[in-house]
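User: Show me a protein chain along with its predicted structure.
Assistant: Here is one chain, sequence first, then structure tokens.
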Amino acid sequence: MSTRASFGDWDTAAEVSQVFEAELMALRLREAGIEARVIDQSYRQEPMPSVRALSLVRVLVPTGRAEEARRLLTERADLPEDGEFVPEPSEDS
């Protein structure tokens, strides 16, 4: 049974604790042609230890592309030596 959250026509592709991680994931998905949104549901009050339930940032994608997005995010992506990311052409292109 899946515990991933669904928001209307959007499903959770990833959950992380930092906004920058989610933004990088969303950027990778967008580069692959998958629309992505970052939803920051974290709560921070200092001093407080990092509590997963209070530090949740979600990457949402359209429901029909959720499995593809999750699969893409599990694949390794090497950065070129010059520091610029150039996505490989997809079969859809």
